[in-house]
Amino acid sequence: MNQINETEKIELKKSTSELKEGIISIVSMLNKHQEGKLYFGVSNGGKVAGQTVTENSLREVSRAISENIEPKIYPEVKKEKIEGKDCIVVEFKGNNAPYFAYGRAYIRVADEDRQLSASELKKMFFKNKEHLWELSISEKTLSDIDKSLLKRYIRRANEAKRINFRFTDVTSVLKKLNLLKDDKLLKAAEALFCKNVSFEVQCAVFAGAEKLTFLDIRQYTGNIFKLIEESNKYLIEHMNWRAELTGEGRKEIPEVPVRAIEEAVVNSLCHRDYTNPKGNEIAFFKDRIEISNPGQFPEDLTPEDYIKGEVSSVLRNPLIANTLYLSQDIERWGSGIRRIFEACGEAKVKVEFKKTKTGFTVVFYRPTSQVTELEKREFGGKAAREKTREKTREKIILLVKNNPKITSEELAHEIGISIKGVEWNIKRLKDENIIGRVGPDKGGRWVVIK
Length: 450
What we know:
By secondary structure, the chain is α+β, with helices and mostly antiparallel strands. Helices cover 38% and strands 22% of the residues. The strands form six sheets. It has a six-stranded mixed sheet with strand order 12-11-15-16-18-17. A four-stranded mixed sheet has the order 1-2-5-4, covered by helices on one side.
């Protein structure tokens, strides 16, 4: 057989010890040519070294490709004899560019893999080839970036081990995240890190099963990270919690799994259509909780396809999705629906995924026994709820005054509410400058300011 040489569509690796580099090469070739071949057991000079090939090693290669390339691809991974030596050959194709390996996009240049810049990503289109909103230039400037938020983001991404650089300055970091073009902010950067932006989430509690009489309504505006935080707080505060006594002590259990709720929130904001002026919505009804976003589901796919894990993810905002992936706010593209479904299944909570004319909605059905408690509390009216909150805060103030080193867990036990409820009330008290914290979370103490 003729000697194999590296080209823009062929990559050679001496062994599967270079598996990660091989996966990056796959993505580079997909983004450039939509196909290619990867050989394990052949050095980059074309010398066939061969390697041990077992069913297990073939599965390992296949699994690594499946877990670390987004959107997903389904390559042919096979054993092949070359010059009498066993090698692994991976053949692949894909038409859903841009593709990402380990959270980053690459392009093939000759026989090398180079990370894609924001301007190059801009050339790749959404499924219908329309221009991506997130890659257009924002009217915001570098001075609008929330520097402290960006620092916290980089720290979390470092802890997740998905980036290997530290915060230096705003411009340098945004360039490394592909959020700048010619030193101008992209819309993705505006949505993620800018202050004073008008992206919106509306939250409400309704008296019955329809949008007729509401008991509470809030409107939050801000960047994606602020909206994730506010949305999660609203959901955790308004959900019902029950306490169970176990061998390890008191355990707080929500009516809907928190990890399912948080997954639904981040997916809602990640995949929404930001060209649509309508915001995201969170609605509590007598029998259900709905999380909706104005981003239509791919026409030729169903939520069941994603639950089964049989399809590649279709990204409306790939740059935003990649940024959230690097900080581990999303775990893996295309897995959100399945993770929600599995979490609800474990908790025996019914969940439904609805494709609508204007977007997509996740519906969590509330347990009947807990709906009764909701009605008892909510139908007392907003004034009754505010009175309950005031009493809770009064108890917190008294407890921290008597014991400045009391913990959130101890406050929850004394008051009889969840730890999340304690944290929510403490934040409000701190925001109103009623209590404060001196020293670190561990070893510090509370002070009553007024």
